[in-house]
Automatic annotation (TrEMBL):
Pfam families: PepSY_TM. This is PepSY-associated TM helix domain-containing protein. The chain crosses the membrane at residues 30-54, 168-190, 211-229, 373-394, 420-445. Keywords: Membrane, Transmembrane, Transmembrane helix. The lineage of its organism: Bacteria, Pseudomonadati, Pseudomonadota, Gammaproteobacteria, Pseudomonadales.
Length: 467
């Protein structure tokens, strides 16, 4: 008896038992479809996320000249550094923000906007705060000022460098990842319960199950945090948070008490355009920063943004997203240097705090190196998990074709109550996660189309037997 024949005989009782439990058969079929059809997207997202998690160390080496300085001594006023940057860049760009050197040995970043730059792109001039020497000139992205390497990796990770259409890939992966993870856990639990003890799987199935159990929490975390900045599901999440009063507070720059719009945690991911400030006097940056420091803005990493108009305030925002998180912000009236508004992370709604922590942990910045290593290990494990799943399918592809029922066939076997419940869950999840709902519909259509030849062959066999 060949190994494939032995495997078929060994699997036959299991296949027969599954046909007696439509819900279990449906779960198996769905898990298989997700692995086969969405697996490639999850695999690419895992590998690109693995590299992204290691970018801080790569950037430290690649951009060491721009980020660091060997000069020692007292730093010069921001006005002097800004003037040096403006002299270097000329009049073709408008000053948009300044990030003072967070600690000795690092550079100050003066950021400019220009009509030739894309949405959320800025030109950053890196200056030695002690000598006012220009150390570098780089294109940075988003309100976080992401450097070129991370910008490329970030855009590849979320859109395959295809822009908005490419974002469907990452949303598809994030939408189905939790389904695949929980479905795999449910299959493991059912097998364990039916066997009356530990599941004694062999070979690839054992490795697949064990690795999936180890990664379960991380996969659910990746899926949840990834969905928050997706286009369709993320929009629904934002609407729900706003309706529940859980949006992230934003400091108001209006000097007439206008209500601010909610802040966006994903500005550097979503490509939100930053408003262009008016021309600001360099000496105002020192004065505004001094007023903000006096009001309690004490983080080493801060960003100063000049007013966008005569009726607007300046803002000074903490941008240290490690632990403990420092993202407090104040608005400063440039005429009086009075604090007109402020937001403190300690007063954020719980949902806003969890979102902030979740996004920062997803990006590897919350707990530093430990966070990065955990992300890298989980991403690598996920890539291996997908690879092992494909290998399992390849070795048993004949069994999948011959012994497995289609998803539509299994749905027909459900009781009326189970059909209604399954339909209601599918509609609810599909409404909240539109990409998942649309792809599920495609799964069903594809399943029907694949079943047509099988049905035609069965009818031909029956006609032959009757003849």
């Amino acid at each position: 008896m060949t190994s494939s024949t032995a495997g078929a005989h060994h699997e036959a009782p299991l296949l027969a038992s599954r046909t007696q439990h439509p819900l279990l058969a449906l779960l198996i079929r769905l898990h298989l479809y997700v692995g086969l059809l969405v697996g490639p997207f999850i695999f690419v997202a895992a590998l690109s996320g693995l590299v992204y998690a290691l970018t801080p160390q790569l950037e430290d080496r690649l951009y060491a000249e721009q980020l660091y300085s060997d000069s020692t001594g007292s730093p010069q006023p921001l006005a002097r550094l800004i003037e040096a940057a403006q002299t270097y860049i000329g009049e073709a760009a408008t000053l948009s923000a300044v990030r003072p050197a967070p600690q000795p040995g690092t550079t100050t970043r003066v950021m400019f906007q220009a009509p030739s730059l894309g949405a959320s792109e800025s030109r950053a001039i890196f200056i030695d705060p002690v000598t006012a020497e220009i150390r570098g000139d780089l294109l940075v992205y988003g309100t976080s000022g992401v450097l070129p390497l991370r910008t490329w990796l970030d855009q590849f990770h979320r859109s395959l460098l295809l822009g908005e259409p490419g974002r469907l890939y990452s949303e598809l992966a994030a939408s189905w990842l939790w389904v695949a993870a929980l479905g795999g856990f449910a299959l493991w639990y059912i097998r364990r319960r039916h066997s009356g003890g530990p599941v004694r799987s062999k070979g690839l199935r054992r490795w697949h199950a064990s690795l999936g159990l180890c990664l379960l929490a991380g996969l659910l975390f990746f899926s949840a945090t990834g969905l928050t900045w997706s286009r369709w599901a993320g929009g629904n999440i934002g609407v729900a948070r706003a309706a529940l009063g859980m949006s992230t507070p934003s400091v108001s720059t209006a000097l007439d008490g206008e209500t601010p719009a909610p802040a966006g945690e994903h500005a550097h991911h979503t490509g939100m355009a930053m408003s262009a400030p008016r021309v600001a006097a360099p000496e105002m940056f020192d004065q505004v920063l001094s007023a903000a420091r006096a009001s309690g803005i004490d983080a080493g990493k801060v960003e100063i943004v000049p007013a966008a108009g005569p009726d607007r305030a300046w803002t000074v925002t903490e941008i240290d997203r490690s632990w403990p998180t420092q993202v407090d912000a104040v608005a400063v009236d440039p005429r009086t240097l009075r604090i007109t508004d402020r937001t403190d992370f300690s007063t954020f709604p719980l949902a806003a705090k969890l979102t902030r922590w979740g996004i920062d942990a997803h990006m590897g910045s919350l707990f530093g190196l430990a966070n990065q290593l955990l992300l890298a290990a989980t991403a690598l494990g996920l890539a291996v998990l997908v690879g092992v799943g494909y290998l399992m399918w390849w070795r048993r592809r004949r069994l999948h074709r011959a012994g497995r029922q289609g998803m539509v066939d299994v749905l027909r076997q459900l009781s009326p109550r189970a059909k209604w419940a399954t339909g209601a869950v599918a509609l609810g999840v599909g409404y909240c996660l539109p990409v998942l709902g649309g792809s599920l519909l495609l799964f069903l259509v594809g399943d029907v189309l694949l079943a047509l030849p099988r049905g035609a062959r069965s009818g031909e066999v029956r006609r032959t037997e009757e003849a």
